[in-house]
């Protein structure tokens, strides 16, 4: 769907004031005053609803019950600004509804809130919002990785959103952090017993391979350091340290010997008298 041009116009004022509103979205006793030209250009579902012969088309009122008011607020905010924030605003309750005040759990991870935004974007066909929410999820885990939060977020993503792009992003994050995730007891609930066992074995294999690579890197560093000392000795020595050596200038050979640890060790010998340096 097309995006709404905003050059020279601050649609936030229209959103705050509700002036010229011709579309109302109601969610659990909370109403949001919208404008068809803004909402319908970005959501094919809204467009179909207002153009139908059903109640939504006749009354200009769309009821949303499958999402919470704060998620709806973020959807609306995006339609008017191209972005959304975490902080709740104070929508006006509809008089005929009897629902209580909306409360937001302060312990809900931001990543879960972004997943819910992705879910509503997928449901109403607002692709740009779905992409933005997915990017916010990815960035949040890049900034601060927490296995428990990831498991909660992944469960929410698989249960609430049908966006395959979000699912793929969650799978990639899981693959990159497999070693941390295999120790989470929530893993079985997310993927099942058999898949969890496979992932644990794969995680152990990955950890073992990482340890082997690290050991090899450290060994290589030690060998390079030993060879560096040999080069330094060559550069600093002009004559053989054997006083009986008749060689006028220092010529040398580098010999490799194996250490008990299996790593190569190098020694320097005078090429004339075979004295070890």
TrEMBL record:
This one is known as BTB domain-containing protein
Which segments constitute the BTB domain? 21-88
Please give the organism: Trichoderma parareesei
Q: Report the domain of life of the source organism.
A: Eukaryota
Q: Which CDD domains match?
A: BTB_POZ_ZBTB_KLHL-like (cd18186)
> What is the annotated signal peptide range for this record?
none
Matching entries from InterPro entries are given as: BTB/POZ_dom, SKP1/BTB/POZ_sf
Cite the SUPFAM superfamilies for this sequence: POZ domain
Residues in coiled coil = none
The UniProt transmembrane annotation reads none
Q: Which Pfam families match?
A: BTB
